[in-house]
Amino acid sequence: MIKKNKKAILFGFLSTVTASLLMVSSAKADNFYDVRPNNETSKLEAYLKFTKIVSLIEDQYVDELNTSDIIDKALKGLLSNLDAHSSFMDAKESKELQVQTNGEFGGLGISVGMKDGALTVIAPIEGTPADKAGMKAKDIILKIDDQATIGMTIDKAVSLMRGKPGTPIKLTVIRKGEMKPLIIDIVRDIIEIQSVYAKTVGDNILYLRITSFDQKVVSSMKKAIKSHPKTKGIIIDLRNNPGGLLNQAIGVVDMFVDHGIIVSQKGKVASENIIYNARKNGSDTKTPLVVLVNDGSASASEIVSGSLQDHKRAIIVGNKTFGKGSVQVVMPVGNNESLRLTIARYYLPSGRTIQAVGVTPDIEVSYGEIKKAEEGISIKERDLQKHLESELQKVDGVKLDKKEKENKKIITEEQIYKDLQLKSAVDILKALIINNKK
After folding, report:
1. Any bridge partners for residue 185, and if so which?
2. Which of 52-56, 121-125, 427-431 is predicted least confidently?
C-alpha cells in the first residue's frame, strides 16, 4: 500500500510537471525562434521514461530498494558519465569533502585523476608517505586494499585512501615497464607540505621547485627571488605538481608577464565566463625563465607553463603534461547532499584548451641520467671525508654543521647529471643568460 501511494504521488507530480511544461510551451510559442521539433514533448517523454524505469526497478529488482535509493544511484551514474570530475555526493561524502577541505586528516600525499577510465596517479607530493613509498606519476591504481577501483569514482577512491594517521593501506598498481602489478604498502600520515623549495645552480641561477599551489606559493617565490639578488636566470620546476589554487597560478604568471590574458574560463552560464589579465605592477619581464614539466604536471601547473609559453616568456622543457583543465563547483542540493559539477573549462592566452590535451613542451626531454666517463677507480679525499662524517653521525648522533646545511640549498654538478631534464634546463638557461647580456 505504501508503494502504491508513493507511485500515485510520483505520477501526480509528473502530471503537474507535464501540465506546467505544456502551458510554458504554449505561452512561449509566439516568442520562441530557436525551435527544435517537439523539444518540450521530447523532454516530457524522457521524464516519463525515467519514472517508468524507476517504478520497474522498485517492483521487480531482486533486492529491496526504495525510491530514494534508486534515485541516488541514478544520480551517481548520471554525474559520473558526464566527466571524470563531476559527482553526486550523499551526506557522508559531502561531510568527508568538508573535512578534506577545511580540517586535518590522515592521507597519503597523492593526487589522482581519471585517465582513459582508469584511476591514475597524477603525482605523489614530495616528502609525503606516497612519495617515500615509491609511488610514481602515471601509476594506475588497480586496488585499494581489497577493493577494485574499476568503475569507482574519484570521490570514493579518495575516501578509501584517506584515514586515521598511522594506519596502513595497501595499493595494487600497474606501472609501465613492470611485468606484473606492484603491491605498495603505505602508512597514512598528516600531510604537511612545503610548497616552494629554493636552491641555486652556480652563482647566478635560481632553482624554484613548486610542489603544489597552496596559498603561500606567490609570497614564497617573491621571498626567494628577493633573497638571491645575483640571479640572472630562473628555473621553475613544476614536475609532478598536481595543481591547487587558481589565484596562485595566476599570481605566478603575473610575476613575469605585465600585459595580456593569463588564462580565461568559459562555461554555459555567462557569469562563469571570466578573463584573468596580467598587471604591470612589479612584473619581471627580463630575467630568462625555463619551466620544467612532465606528465605529473596538472591543472594550475598547466596554466602556469602554458600561459608563459603562449606569452613567449619561458622555454618549457620536459614531457607533455597531464591535461586537466576544467572548473568544478560544489553546490548543496538539500539533506546535506551536494553536487560537484564541471561548469567551465580553462583556456590559455592563445585560445587553446588544456583539458585532455595538456601542454606540449618547447623542448621534449625524457627523464634520465647522464653517464659521465669514468676517471678510473679512485677514492678522492673529499669523498672519503664525507663518508667518515656520515659514519660518525650514525654513531654519535652529531648534527650537521651550518656549512653542511647550507649545501642542501645548492644543486651540485653531480645532482644535475643525474637529472637529464634539469641538465637540459640549466644548459638552455645559460645560453639565454649569455644572449641576454648581448
Report:
1. 170
2. 121-125
Task: Please say which residue of 190, 208, 234 terminates a domain.
Answer: 190
Q: Does the pLDDT at position 227 exceed 70? A: yes
Q: How many domains does the chain have?
A: 3
Q: Please give the residue range of the domain that contains residue 156.
A: 91-190
Looking only at the bridges linking them, the beta strands covering 233-237 and 205-210 are: parallel
Catalytic, 86? Answer no
Note whether residue 310 is domain-resident: yes
- C-alpha dihedral, 400 to 403 to 408 to 409, nearest 10°: 150
Which of 310, 326, 419, 423 is catalytic? The answer is 310
Residue 319 lies in a domain: yes
C-beta pairs of 185-188 under 8 Å, 24+ apart in sequence: 185/133, 186/108, 186/129, 186/130, 186/133, 186/135, 187/129, 188/106, 188/107, 188/108, 188/129, 188/162, 188/163, 188/164
Instruction: DSSP for 36-55, please give it.
Output: -TTHHHHHHHHHHHHHHHHH
Active-site residue identified among 86, 212, 297, 299: 299
Same domain membership, residue 316 and residue 350? yes
**CATH code, domain with 112:** 2.30.42.10
131 is catalytic: no
Q: Which pTM was predicted?
A: 0.69
Residues 335 and 231 in one domain: yes
80 classed as catalytic = no
Is residue 382 included in any domain, yes or no? no
